[in-house]
User: Which sequence fits this backbone?
Protein backbone atom coordinates (compact mmCIF):
# COMPACT_ATOMS: atom_id res chain seq x y z
CA UNK A 1 0.00 0.00 0.00
CA UNK A 2 1.42 3.39 -0.94
CA UNK A 3 1.43 6.20 1.59
CA UNK A 4 -1.41 8.10 -0.05
CA UNK A 5 -3.66 5.03 0.22
CA UNK A 6 -3.34 4.95 4.00
CA UNK A 7 -6.20 5.97 6.22
CA UNK A 8 -5.79 9.13 8.30
CA UNK A 9 -5.33 7.15 11.52
CA UNK A 10 -2.92 4.76 9.80
CA UNK A 11 -0.77 7.65 8.64
CA UNK A 12 -1.07 9.28 12.05
CA UNK A 13 0.39 6.18 13.67
CA UNK A 14 3.30 6.08 11.21
CA UNK A 15 4.02 9.75 11.90
CA UNK A 16 3.83 9.22 15.66
CA UNK A 17 6.24 6.29 15.35
CA UNK A 18 8.59 8.51 13.28
CA UNK A 19 8.40 6.11 10.32
CA UNK A 20 7.01 8.90 8.13
CA UNK A 21 7.62 12.62 8.59
CA UNK A 22 4.92 15.26 8.30
CA UNK A 23 6.80 16.78 5.37
CA UNK A 24 6.93 13.42 3.57
CA UNK A 25 3.18 13.00 4.01
CA UNK A 26 2.54 16.50 2.67
CA UNK A 27 4.85 15.91 -0.29
CA UNK A 28 3.22 12.60 -1.13
CA UNK A 29 -0.30 14.01 -1.20
CA UNK A 30 0.83 17.09 -3.13
CA UNK A 31 2.33 14.72 -5.67
CA UNK A 32 -1.05 13.03 -6.06
CA UNK A 33 -2.77 16.41 -6.40
CA UNK A 34 -0.28 17.41 -9.12
CA UNK A 35 -0.91 14.13 -10.92
CA UNK A 36 -4.72 14.08 -10.89
CA UNK A 37 -6.30 17.40 -9.96
CA UNK A 38 -6.11 18.87 -13.47
CA UNK A 39 -8.66 16.18 -14.35
CA UNK A 40 -10.68 15.96 -11.14
CA UNK A 41 -10.55 19.62 -10.03
CA UNK A 42 -11.27 18.88 -6.38
CA UNK A 43 -9.49 22.01 -5.12
CA UNK A 44 -10.06 25.74 -5.48
CA UNK A 45 -7.07 26.81 -3.39
CA UNK A 46 -3.82 25.14 -2.36
CA UNK A 47 -1.15 27.12 -0.53
CA UNK A 48 1.99 25.05 -0.87
CA UNK A 49 4.29 27.44 0.93
CA UNK A 50 2.05 27.71 4.00
CA UNK A 51 1.58 23.95 3.91
CA UNK A 52 5.29 23.15 4.24
CA UNK A 53 5.76 25.82 6.87
CA UNK A 54 2.92 24.29 8.84
CA UNK A 55 4.34 20.78 8.32
CA UNK A 56 7.64 21.94 9.83
CA UNK A 57 5.87 23.50 12.83
CA UNK A 58 3.75 20.41 13.47
CA UNK A 59 6.77 18.10 13.18
CA UNK A 60 8.56 20.15 15.82
CA UNK A 61 5.56 19.93 18.13
CA UNK A 62 5.28 16.18 17.62
CA UNK A 63 8.99 15.72 18.28
CA UNK A 64 8.80 17.77 21.47
CA UNK A 65 5.69 15.97 22.66
CA UNK A 66 3.58 19.13 22.57
CA UNK A 67 1.06 17.41 20.24
CA UNK A 68 0.19 13.72 20.47
CA UNK A 69 -3.21 13.53 18.80
CA UNK A 70 -3.85 10.48 16.56
CA UNK A 71 -4.36 12.92 13.65
CA UNK A 72 -1.22 14.97 14.26
CA UNK A 73 0.63 15.68 11.02
CA UNK A 74 -2.09 14.23 8.78
CA UNK A 75 -2.94 16.44 5.76
CA UNK A 76 -6.61 17.45 5.53
CA UNK A 77 -8.68 19.38 3.01
CA UNK A 78 -11.35 21.90 4.07
CA UNK A 79 -14.54 22.65 2.14
CA UNK A 80 -14.48 26.19 0.82
CA UNK A 81 -17.41 27.42 2.91
CA UNK A 82 -15.48 26.82 6.13
CA UNK A 83 -13.25 29.73 7.11
CA UNK A 84 -9.52 29.16 7.41
CA UNK A 85 -7.57 32.20 8.63
CA UNK A 86 -5.57 33.89 5.89
CA UNK A 87 -6.72 31.38 3.24
CA UNK A 88 -9.04 32.37 0.40
CA UNK A 89 -12.60 31.23 1.18
CA UNK A 90 -14.94 31.58 -1.80
CA UNK A 91 -17.91 29.30 -1.05
CA UNK A 92 -17.64 28.43 -4.75
CA UNK A 93 -18.94 31.92 -5.57
CA UNK A 94 -17.65 34.95 -7.50
CA UNK A 95 -19.06 37.23 -4.84
CA UNK A 96 -16.36 35.98 -2.45
CA UNK A 97 -13.59 35.71 -5.03
CA UNK A 98 -11.33 37.87 -2.88
CA UNK A 99 -12.46 37.01 0.65
CA UNK A 100 -9.68 36.02 3.02
CA UNK A 101 -11.08 35.38 6.51
CA UNK A 102 -9.29 36.96 9.47
CA UNK A 103 -10.26 33.99 11.64
CA UNK A 104 -10.67 30.22 11.40
CA UNK A 105 -13.81 28.22 12.01
CA UNK A 106 -13.95 26.56 15.42
CA UNK A 107 -13.80 23.10 13.80
CA UNK A 108 -10.66 24.13 11.92
CA UNK A 109 -9.13 25.57 15.09
CA UNK A 110 -9.72 22.28 16.88
CA UNK A 111 -8.13 20.31 14.05
CA UNK A 112 -5.17 22.69 14.04
CA UNK A 113 -4.73 22.29 17.79
CA UNK A 114 -4.62 18.54 17.16
CA UNK A 115 -1.81 18.99 14.63
CA UNK A 116 -3.74 18.87 11.35
CA UNK A 117 -1.95 20.14 8.27
CA UNK A 118 -4.36 21.97 5.96
CA UNK A 119 -3.77 21.23 2.29
CA UNK A 120 -6.26 23.66 0.83
CA UNK A 121 -9.91 24.49 0.15
CA UNK A 122 -12.10 22.16 -1.81
CA UNK A 123 -14.59 22.91 -4.53
CA UNK A 124 -18.31 22.96 -3.84
CA UNK A 125 -21.68 23.95 -5.20
CA UNK A 126 -22.03 27.70 -4.76
CA UNK A 127 -22.90 28.41 -1.11
CA UNK A 128 -23.85 24.75 -0.71
CA UNK A 129 -26.78 25.06 -3.12
CA UNK A 130 -26.63 22.04 -5.34
CA UNK A 131 -25.92 18.33 -5.33
CA UNK A 132 -23.44 17.92 -8.18
CA UNK A 133 -20.70 20.53 -7.57
CA UNK A 134 -21.56 21.93 -11.00
CA UNK A 135 -22.89 25.25 -9.68
CA UNK A 136 -19.40 26.27 -8.51
CA UNK A 137 -18.21 29.47 -10.14
CA UNK A 138 -14.75 27.88 -10.38
CA UNK A 139 -15.65 24.94 -12.59
CA UNK A 140 -17.11 21.52 -11.93
CA UNK A 141 -15.39 18.74 -10.03
CA UNK A 142 -15.33 15.31 -11.68
CA UNK A 143 -15.97 11.95 -10.08
CA UNK A 144 -12.66 10.07 -9.66
CA UNK A 145 -14.41 6.76 -10.42
CA UNK A 146 -15.49 7.99 -13.85
CA UNK A 147 -14.74 11.55 -14.85
CA UNK A 148 -17.79 11.69 -17.13
CA UNK A 149 -19.85 11.68 -13.95
CA UNK A 150 -20.34 14.19 -11.18
CA UNK A 151 -18.98 13.63 -7.66
CA UNK A 152 -22.24 14.78 -6.11
CA UNK A 153 -22.54 17.83 -3.90
CA UNK A 154 -22.29 20.17 -2.39
CA UNK A 155 -19.15 18.70 -0.74
CA UNK A 156 -18.14 17.21 -4.08
CA UNK A 157 -14.57 18.52 -4.01
CA UNK A 158 -13.99 17.15 -0.51
CA UNK A 159 -15.34 13.70 -1.37
CA UNK A 160 -13.53 13.53 -4.70
CA UNK A 161 -10.28 14.52 -2.96
CA UNK A 162 -10.71 11.84 -0.30
CA UNK A 163 -11.52 9.19 -2.93
CA UNK A 164 -8.65 10.19 -5.20
CA UNK A 165 -5.94 10.29 -2.55
CA UNK A 166 -5.72 14.08 -2.76
CA UNK A 167 -6.12 14.29 1.00
CA UNK A 168 -6.26 11.77 3.84
CA UNK A 169 -9.53 13.12 5.12
CA UNK A 170 -11.70 16.18 4.63
CA UNK A 171 -14.13 18.49 6.35
CA UNK A 172 -17.41 19.04 4.57
CA UNK A 173 -20.78 20.49 5.49
CA UNK A 174 -24.25 18.96 5.25
CA UNK A 175 -27.42 21.04 4.98
CA UNK A 176 -29.62 18.60 3.03
CA UNK A 177 -27.27 15.70 2.28
CA UNK A 178 -24.15 17.52 1.15
CA UNK A 179 -21.75 15.18 2.97
CA UNK A 180 -23.71 11.96 2.64
CA UNK A 181 -24.70 12.03 -1.03
CA UNK A 182 -21.27 12.91 -2.49
CA UNK A 183 -19.70 10.37 -0.12
CA UNK A 184 -22.00 7.76 -1.65
CA UNK A 185 -21.19 8.90 -5.20
CA UNK A 186 -17.43 8.87 -4.56
CA UNK A 187 -17.18 5.64 -2.57
CA UNK A 188 -15.99 7.24 0.68
CA UNK A 189 -17.43 7.51 4.19
CA UNK A 190 -19.06 10.69 5.45
CA UNK A 191 -20.80 11.59 8.66
CA UNK A 192 -23.32 14.34 9.42
CA UNK A 193 -23.44 14.84 13.20
CA UNK A 194 -26.51 15.57 15.31
CA UNK A 195 -27.44 19.24 14.95
CA UNK A 196 -25.48 21.27 17.47
CA UNK A 197 -22.66 18.75 17.93
CA UNK A 198 -20.05 20.62 15.89
CA UNK A 199 -19.82 24.40 16.17
CA UNK A 200 -21.03 26.32 13.11
CA UNK A 201 -18.81 29.28 14.00
CA UNK A 202 -16.86 29.98 10.84
CA UNK A 203 -19.17 27.95 8.57
CA UNK A 204 -20.58 30.39 6.05
CA UNK A 205 -24.30 30.06 6.65
CA UNK A 206 -26.70 28.72 4.03
CA UNK A 207 -29.54 27.31 6.17
CA UNK A 208 -28.55 27.80 9.77
CA UNK A 209 -31.19 25.53 11.34
CA UNK A 210 -30.21 22.55 9.20
CA UNK A 211 -26.46 22.45 8.66
CA UNK A 212 -23.51 20.80 10.35
CA UNK A 213 -19.81 20.45 9.60
CA UNK A 214 -18.74 16.80 9.42
CA UNK A 215 -15.88 14.49 8.44
CA UNK A 216 -15.32 12.73 5.13
CA UNK A 217 -12.73 9.96 5.08
CA UNK A 218 -11.89 6.53 3.72
CA UNK A 219 -13.34 4.59 6.63
CA UNK A 220 -15.60 4.78 9.66
CA UNK A 221 -12.70 4.84 12.12
CA UNK A 222 -11.27 7.98 10.56
CA UNK A 223 -14.69 9.66 10.62
CA UNK A 224 -15.10 8.78 14.30
CA UNK A 225 -11.64 10.14 15.16
CA UNK A 226 -12.21 13.39 13.28
CA UNK A 227 -15.64 13.88 14.85
CA UNK A 228 -14.12 13.32 18.28
CA UNK A 229 -11.65 16.11 17.52
CA UNK A 230 -14.05 18.71 16.09
CA UNK A 231 -17.13 18.14 18.27
CA UNK A 232 -17.83 20.06 21.43
CA UNK A 233 -19.76 22.93 22.95
CA UNK A 234 -18.83 26.36 21.64
CA UNK A 235 -20.29 29.50 23.27
CA UNK A 236 -19.68 31.35 19.97
CA UNK A 237 -22.45 29.23 18.36
CA UNK A 238 -25.80 29.76 20.06
CA UNK A 239 -27.09 26.47 18.63
CA UNK A 240 -24.15 24.48 20.02
CA UNK A 241 -25.17 21.68 22.36
CA UNK A 242 -23.34 20.55 25.50
CA UNK A 243 -22.67 16.83 25.15
CA UNK A 244 -20.94 14.51 27.58
CA UNK A 245 -20.37 11.63 25.17
CA UNK A 246 -17.61 12.93 22.90
CA UNK A 247 -15.62 9.66 22.85
CA UNK A 248 -16.92 8.52 19.46
CA UNK A 249 -13.99 6.19 18.78
CA UNK A 250 -15.13 4.02 21.72
CA UNK A 251 -17.96 2.87 19.44
CA UNK A 252 -15.56 1.28 16.93
CA UNK A 253 -16.55 -2.28 17.73
CA UNK A 254 -17.58 -5.06 15.39
CA UNK A 255 -20.71 -5.92 17.33
CA UNK A 256 -24.35 -5.33 16.41
CA UNK A 257 -25.82 -8.14 18.47
CA UNK A 258 -29.22 -7.12 19.75
CA UNK A 259 -29.38 -3.94 17.68
CA UNK A 260 -32.71 -3.22 16.06
CA UNK A 261 -32.43 -2.01 12.48
CA UNK A 262 -35.40 -0.39 10.74
CA UNK A 263 -35.67 -0.16 6.95
CA UNK A 264 -38.18 2.48 5.72
CA UNK A 265 -40.17 0.95 2.88
CA UNK A 266 -41.00 4.41 1.54
CA UNK A 267 -37.29 5.07 0.84
CA UNK A 268 -37.21 1.98 -1.42
CA UNK A 269 -39.88 3.04 -3.90
CA UNK A 270 -39.97 2.86 -7.70
CA UNK A 271 -37.84 6.01 -7.99
CA UNK A 272 -34.94 4.23 -6.27
CA UNK A 273 -32.70 2.21 -8.56
CA UNK A 274 -32.70 -1.58 -8.33
CA UNK A 275 -28.96 -1.77 -7.67
CA UNK A 276 -29.38 0.76 -4.86
CA UNK A 277 -32.08 -1.40 -3.30
CA UNK A 278 -29.91 -4.50 -3.72
CA UNK A 279 -27.11 -2.83 -1.80
CA UNK A 280 -29.50 -1.95 1.03
CA UNK A 281 -30.81 -5.52 1.23
CA UNK A 282 -27.29 -6.90 1.15
CA UNK A 283 -26.43 -4.71 4.15
CA UNK A 284 -29.61 -5.90 5.88
CA UNK A 285 -28.54 -9.55 5.42
CA UNK A 286 -25.04 -8.83 6.69
CA UNK A 287 -26.41 -7.19 9.82
CA UNK A 288 -28.82 -10.08 10.42
CA UNK A 289 -25.92 -12.54 10.09
CA UNK A 290 -24.10 -10.48 12.70
CA UNK A 291 -26.90 -10.73 15.23
CA UNK A 292 -28.99 -7.63 14.60
CA UNK A 293 -32.74 -7.81 14.14
CA UNK A 294 -34.19 -6.04 11.12
CA UNK A 295 -37.68 -4.91 10.21
CA UNK A 296 -39.28 -3.02 7.35
CA UNK A 297 -41.54 -0.14 8.39
CA UNK A 298 -43.32 2.89 6.97
CA UNK A 299 -41.77 6.17 7.96
CA UNK A 300 -44.41 8.25 6.19
CA UNK A 301 -44.43 11.85 4.97
CA UNK A 302 -41.82 11.17 2.28
CA UNK A 303 -43.68 13.18 -0.35
CA UNK A 304 -43.54 16.26 1.90
CA UNK A 305 -39.87 16.10 2.90
CA UNK A 306 -38.31 17.73 -0.16
CA UNK A 307 -40.89 20.56 -0.42
CA UNK A 308 -40.52 21.34 3.29
CA UNK A 309 -36.73 21.30 3.04
CA UNK A 310 -36.52 23.60 0.04
CA UNK A 311 -38.96 26.11 1.51
CA UNK A 312 -37.08 26.28 4.82
CA UNK A 313 -33.58 26.19 3.30
CA UNK A 314 -34.40 28.84 0.70
CA UNK A 315 -36.07 31.08 3.28
CA UNK A 316 -33.02 30.92 5.52
CA UNK A 317 -30.68 31.36 2.57
CA UNK A 318 -32.49 34.54 1.48
CA UNK A 319 -31.80 35.95 4.93
CA UNK A 320 -28.26 34.59 5.36
CA UNK A 321 -27.07 35.73 1.95
CA UNK A 322 -28.45 39.26 2.38
CA UNK A 323 -25.10 40.14 3.97
CA UNK A 324 -23.33 39.82 0.61
CA UNK A 325 -23.91 43.33 -0.72
CA UNK A 326 -20.46 44.55 -1.72
CA UNK A 327 -20.13 46.84 1.32
CA UNK A 328 -18.00 45.11 3.96
CA UNK A 329 -16.35 42.23 2.07
CA UNK A 330 -16.43 40.33 -1.15
CA UNK A 331 -16.89 41.56 -4.66
CA UNK A 332 -18.37 44.98 -5.35
CA UNK A 333 -19.69 45.80 -8.82
CA UNK A 334 -17.22 48.07 -10.64
CA UNK A 335 -19.96 50.44 -11.84
CA UNK A 336 -23.12 51.66 -10.14
CA UNK A 337 -25.26 54.79 -9.90
CA UNK A 338 -26.44 54.77 -6.30
CA UNK A 339 -26.53 52.59 -3.20
CA UNK A 340 -29.40 50.34 -4.27
CA UNK A 341 -27.88 49.98 -7.70
CA UNK A 342 -24.59 48.95 -6.05
CA UNK A 343 -26.35 46.30 -3.98
CA UNK A 344 -28.27 44.89 -6.93
CA UNK A 345 -25.36 44.87 -9.36
CA UNK A 346 -22.89 43.40 -6.84
CA UNK A 347 -25.27 40.59 -5.96
CA UNK A 348 -26.55 39.93 -9.49
CA UNK A 349 -23.04 39.86 -10.93
CA UNK A 350 -21.62 37.89 -8.01
CA UNK A 351 -24.23 35.15 -7.51
CA UNK A 352 -24.87 32.28 -9.91
CA UNK A 353 -28.27 31.22 -11.26
CA UNK A 354 -29.03 28.55 -8.67
CA UNK A 355 -28.25 30.89 -5.77
CA UNK A 356 -30.46 33.60 -7.26
CA UNK A 357 -33.22 31.05 -7.79
CA UNK A 358 -33.18 29.98 -4.16
CA UNK A 359 -32.85 33.50 -2.75
CA UNK A 360 -35.89 34.53 -4.77
CA UNK A 361 -37.87 31.47 -3.69
CA UNK A 362 -36.93 32.23 -0.10
CA UNK A 363 -37.96 35.87 -0.41
CA UNK A 364 -41.31 34.80 -1.87
CA UNK A 365 -42.17 32.26 0.83
CA UNK A 366 -41.26 34.75 3.55
CA UNK A 367 -43.39 37.54 2.06
CA UNK A 368 -46.40 38.60 4.11
CA UNK A 369 -48.94 37.19 1.70
CA UNK A 370 -47.37 33.71 1.45
CA UNK A 371 -45.64 33.26 4.81
CA UNK A 372 -48.46 31.17 6.33
CA UNK A 373 -49.02 28.99 3.29
CA UNK A 374 -45.37 28.12 2.74
CA UNK A 375 -42.86 28.93 5.47
CA UNK A 376 -45.14 28.42 8.48
CA UNK A 377 -46.56 25.27 6.86
CA UNK A 378 -43.05 23.94 6.18
CA UNK A 379 -42.04 24.45 9.82
CA UNK A 380 -45.12 22.53 10.90
CA UNK A 381 -44.21 19.78 8.44
CA UNK A 382 -40.72 19.76 9.96
CA UNK A 383 -42.38 19.13 13.33
CA UNK A 384 -44.34 16.18 11.93
CA UNK A 385 -41.23 14.71 10.27
CA UNK A 386 -39.38 14.96 13.56
CA UNK A 387 -42.27 13.18 15.28
CA UNK A 388 -42.18 10.40 12.66
CA UNK A 389 -38.50 9.78 13.36
CA UNK A 390 -39.01 10.00 17.14
CA UNK A 391 -41.68 7.30 16.84
CA UNK A 392 -39.43 5.14 14.66
CA UNK A 393 -36.55 5.40 17.13
CA UNK A 394 -38.78 4.04 19.89
CA UNK A 395 -38.65 0.75 17.97
CA UNK A 396 -35.24 0.87 16.27
CA UNK A 397 -31.66 1.74 17.18
CA UNK A 398 -30.62 2.56 13.63
CA UNK A 399 -32.49 3.23 10.39
CA UNK A 400 -30.87 1.80 7.26
CA UNK A 401 -31.67 3.50 3.97
CA UNK A 402 -30.13 4.49 0.66
CA UNK A 403 -27.99 7.65 0.60
CA UNK A 404 -29.32 8.55 -2.85
CA UNK A 405 -31.87 7.07 -5.29
CA UNK A 406 -29.23 6.49 -7.95
CA UNK A 407 -25.49 6.48 -8.50
CA UNK A 408 -23.61 9.54 -9.76
CA UNK A 409 -25.27 11.07 -12.84
CA UNK A 410 -23.44 12.27 -15.92
CA UNK A 411 -21.94 15.75 -15.93
CA UNK A 412 -24.55 18.17 -17.31
CA UNK A 413 -27.59 15.99 -16.56
CA UNK A 414 -28.75 18.00 -13.54
CA UNK A 415 -29.09 21.29 -15.41
CA UNK A 416 -31.65 19.77 -17.74
CA UNK A 417 -34.26 19.14 -15.03
CA UNK A 418 -33.99 21.26 -11.89
CA UNK A 419 -36.99 19.72 -10.14
CA UNK A 420 -35.74 16.17 -10.72
CA UNK A 421 -32.44 17.20 -9.16
CA UNK A 422 -34.22 18.63 -6.12
CA UNK A 423 -36.34 15.50 -5.75
CA UNK A 424 -33.26 13.27 -5.74
CA UNK A 425 -32.52 14.65 -2.25
CA UNK A 426 -35.47 12.68 -0.84
CA UNK A 427 -33.26 10.24 1.11
CA UNK A 428 -31.21 12.88 2.87
CA UNK A 429 -33.16 16.09 3.62
CA UNK A 430 -35.40 14.66 6.35
CA UNK A 431 -32.33 13.89 8.46
CA UNK A 432 -31.45 17.60 8.48
CA UNK A 433 -35.05 18.62 9.19
CA UNK A 434 -35.06 16.36 12.27
CA UNK A 435 -31.48 17.25 13.32
CA UNK A 436 -30.37 13.61 13.29
CA UNK A 437 -26.91 12.05 12.89
CA UNK A 438 -26.31 9.98 9.77
CA UNK A 439 -23.42 8.07 8.24
CA UNK A 440 -22.96 7.32 4.55
CA UNK A 441 -20.64 4.50 3.60
CA UNK A 442 -19.94 2.39 0.51
CA UNK A 443 -22.40 -0.45 0.05
CA UNK A 444 -21.59 -1.80 -3.39
CA UNK A 445 -20.21 -1.03 -6.84
CA UNK A 446 -22.91 -0.95 -9.51
CA UNK A 447 -22.83 -2.63 -12.91
CA UNK A 448 -21.48 0.61 -14.42
CA UNK A 449 -18.53 0.66 -12.02
CA UNK A 450 -19.89 3.45 -9.83
CA UNK A 451 -20.14 3.34 -6.03
CA UNK A 452 -23.45 2.80 -4.27
CA UNK A 453 -23.74 4.32 -0.81
CA UNK A 454 -25.90 3.24 2.08
CA UNK A 455 -27.00 5.47 4.90
CA UNK A 456 -27.27 4.72 8.61
CA UNK A 457 -29.49 7.19 10.49
CA UNK A 458 -29.46 7.47 14.26
CA UNK A 459 -31.65 9.01 16.91
CA UNK A 460 -30.51 12.40 18.20
CA UNK A 461 -27.07 12.19 19.86
CA UNK A 462 -26.73 8.49 18.97
CA UNK A 463 -23.69 8.77 16.73
CA UNK A 464 -22.13 5.83 18.55
CA UNK A 465 -24.83 3.45 17.34
CA UNK A 466 -24.40 4.39 13.69
CA UNK A 467 -20.61 4.29 14.07
CA UNK A 468 -20.77 0.80 15.57
CA UNK A 469 -23.15 -0.41 12.86
CA UNK A 470 -21.09 1.17 10.09
CA UNK A 471 -17.84 -0.24 11.48
CA UNK A 472 -19.39 -3.71 11.52
CA UNK A 473 -20.64 -3.42 7.93
CA UNK A 474 -17.27 -2.13 6.81
CA UNK A 475 -15.54 -5.21 8.18
CA UNK A 476 -17.79 -7.38 6.03
CA UNK A 477 -17.19 -5.41 2.85
CA UNK A 478 -16.48 -7.76 -0.06
CA UNK A 479 -15.52 -5.26 -2.73
CA UNK A 480 -12.61 -2.89 -3.21
CA UNK A 481 -13.46 0.81 -2.97
CA UNK A 482 -9.84 2.00 -3.19
CA UNK A 483 -9.18 3.58 -6.58
CA UNK A 484 -6.28 5.84 -5.65
CA UNK A 485 -3.52 4.01 -7.48
CA UNK A 486 -5.76 3.32 -10.47
CA UNK A 487 -6.61 6.97 -11.04
CA UNK A 488 -3.01 8.04 -10.65
CA UNK A 489 -2.01 5.56 -13.32
CA UNK A 490 -4.89 6.77 -15.51
CA UNK A 491 -3.74 10.39 -15.13
CA UNK A 492 -0.15 9.50 -15.97
CA UNK A 493 -1.04 7.69 -19.19
CA UNK B 1 -54.27 26.13 -2.59
CA UNK B 2 -52.84 26.64 -6.06
CA UNK B 3 -49.89 28.96 -6.33
CA UNK B 4 -50.59 32.28 -7.95
CA UNK B 5 -49.21 32.57 -11.42
CA UNK B 6 -45.78 34.12 -11.13
CA UNK B 7 -46.15 37.23 -13.27
CA UNK B 8 -43.41 39.58 -14.36
CA UNK B 9 -44.72 41.99 -11.73
CA UNK B 10 -44.32 39.36 -9.01
CA UNK B 11 -40.79 38.59 -10.17
CA UNK B 12 -39.90 42.29 -10.07
CA UNK B 13 -41.26 42.55 -6.51
CA UNK B 14 -39.20 39.56 -5.44
CA UNK B 15 -36.11 40.96 -7.13
CA UNK B 16 -36.51 44.17 -5.16
CA UNK B 17 -36.97 42.28 -1.88
CA UNK B 18 -33.94 40.11 -2.65
CA UNK B 19 -31.76 43.01 -3.86
CA UNK B 20 -31.25 41.30 -7.18
CA UNK B 21 -31.69 42.38 -10.76
CA UNK B 22 -32.17 39.70 -13.39
CA UNK B 23 -31.28 40.19 -17.03
CA UNK B 24 -34.24 39.98 -19.44
CA UNK B 25 -33.87 36.37 -20.60
CA UNK B 26 -32.89 35.21 -17.14
CA UNK B 27 -36.05 36.77 -15.70
CA UNK B 28 -38.18 34.59 -17.95
CA UNK B 29 -36.23 31.46 -16.98
CA UNK B 30 -36.39 32.20 -13.26
CA UNK B 31 -40.10 33.00 -13.53
CA UNK B 32 -40.70 29.57 -15.06
CA UNK B 33 -38.51 27.90 -12.45
CA UNK B 34 -40.33 29.61 -9.58
CA UNK B 35 -43.70 28.61 -11.00
CA UNK B 36 -42.55 25.00 -11.25
CA UNK B 37 -41.01 24.98 -7.79
CA UNK B 38 -44.04 26.53 -6.11
CA UNK B 39 -46.42 24.14 -7.86
CA UNK B 40 -44.36 21.27 -6.44
CA UNK B 41 -44.27 22.86 -3.00
CA UNK B 42 -48.03 23.36 -3.01
CA UNK B 43 -48.34 19.67 -2.19
CA UNK B 44 -47.66 20.64 1.42
CA UNK B 45 -51.26 21.87 1.46
CA UNK B 46 -52.36 18.21 1.29
CA UNK B 47 -50.85 17.61 4.72
CA UNK B 48 -53.00 18.20 7.79
CA UNK B 49 -50.89 20.25 10.18
CA UNK B 50 -53.71 21.40 12.46
CA UNK B 51 -52.44 22.07 15.94
CA UNK B 52 -48.81 21.30 15.04
CA UNK B 53 -46.34 23.75 16.52
CA UNK B 54 -43.79 24.98 13.96
CA UNK B 55 -40.30 23.67 14.75
CA UNK B 56 -37.29 25.94 14.42
CA UNK B 57 -34.63 24.14 16.47
CA UNK B 58 -35.09 20.34 16.78
CA UNK B 59 -34.05 20.20 20.45
CA UNK B 60 -33.96 23.63 22.11
CA UNK B 61 -37.25 25.18 23.17
CA UNK B 62 -35.94 28.47 24.52
CA UNK B 63 -33.47 31.06 23.33
CA UNK B 64 -29.84 30.86 24.33
CA UNK B 65 -28.19 33.83 26.01
CA UNK B 66 -24.69 34.68 27.13
CA UNK B 67 -23.26 37.17 29.54
CA UNK B 68 -23.04 40.70 28.12
CA UNK B 69 -19.26 40.76 28.29
CA UNK B 70 -16.64 41.53 25.67
CA UNK B 71 -14.61 38.44 24.83
CA UNK B 72 -11.35 40.22 24.16
CA UNK B 73 -11.28 39.49 20.44
CA UNK B 74 -10.32 42.54 18.43
CA UNK B 75 -11.08 41.75 14.82
CA UNK B 76 -12.40 45.21 13.93
CA UNK B 77 -9.29 46.26 12.05
CA UNK B 78 -8.97 42.96 10.20
CA UNK B 79 -12.66 42.98 9.31
CA UNK B 80 -12.63 46.56 8.05
CA UNK B 81 -9.62 45.76 5.90
CA UNK B 82 -11.87 43.39 3.90
CA UNK B 83 -14.00 46.17 2.44
CA UNK B 84 -13.77 46.82 -1.31
CA UNK B 85 -13.62 50.54 -0.60
CA UNK B 86 -12.74 52.09 2.72
CA UNK B 87 -11.27 55.26 4.19
CA UNK B 88 -10.06 56.08 7.70
CA UNK B 89 -11.53 52.86 9.09
CA UNK B 90 -14.94 53.50 7.52
CA UNK B 91 -16.80 51.69 4.76
CA UNK B 92 -17.29 53.88 1.70
CA UNK B 93 -20.59 53.56 -0.13
CA UNK B 94 -22.65 55.81 -2.44
CA UNK B 95 -24.59 58.52 -0.67
CA UNK B 96 -27.70 56.96 0.81
CA UNK B 97 -29.60 60.07 1.94
CA UNK B 98 -29.59 62.94 -0.47
CA UNK B 99 -29.74 66.44 0.98
CA UNK B 100 -33.04 68.23 0.34
CA UNK B 101 -32.90 71.67 -1.27
CA UNK B 102 -34.70 74.62 0.36
CA UNK B 103 -37.35 74.47 -2.37
CA UNK B 104 -38.11 70.83 -1.57
CA UNK B 105 -36.06 69.43 -4.43
CA UNK B 106 -33.14 67.07 -3.96
Assistant:
Amino acid sequence: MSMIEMTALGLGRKIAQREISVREAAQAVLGQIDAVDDTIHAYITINEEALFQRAKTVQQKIDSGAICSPLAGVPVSIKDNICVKDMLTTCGSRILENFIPPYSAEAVRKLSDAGAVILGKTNMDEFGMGNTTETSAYGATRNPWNTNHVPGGSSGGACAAAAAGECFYALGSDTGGSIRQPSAFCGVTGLKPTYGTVSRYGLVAYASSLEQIGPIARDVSDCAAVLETIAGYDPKDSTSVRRKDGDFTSALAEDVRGMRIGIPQDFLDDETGEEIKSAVWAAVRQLEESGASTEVFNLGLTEFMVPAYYIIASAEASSNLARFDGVRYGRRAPEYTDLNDMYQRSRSEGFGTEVKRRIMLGSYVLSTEYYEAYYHKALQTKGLIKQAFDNAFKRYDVILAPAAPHTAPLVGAAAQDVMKTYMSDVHTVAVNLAGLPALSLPGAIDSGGLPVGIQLIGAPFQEKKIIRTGFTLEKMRNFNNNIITKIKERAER
Amino acid sequence: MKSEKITDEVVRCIEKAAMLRLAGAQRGQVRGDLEQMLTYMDRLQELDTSGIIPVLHPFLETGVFREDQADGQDLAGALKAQTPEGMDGCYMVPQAVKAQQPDGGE
User: Anything to note?
Assistant: Chain A is about 40% helix and 15% strand. Chain A touches chain B through 72 residues (CB under 8 Å). The CA atoms of residues 6 and 168 of chain A lie 7 Å apart. The first helix of chain A runs from residue 8 to 16.
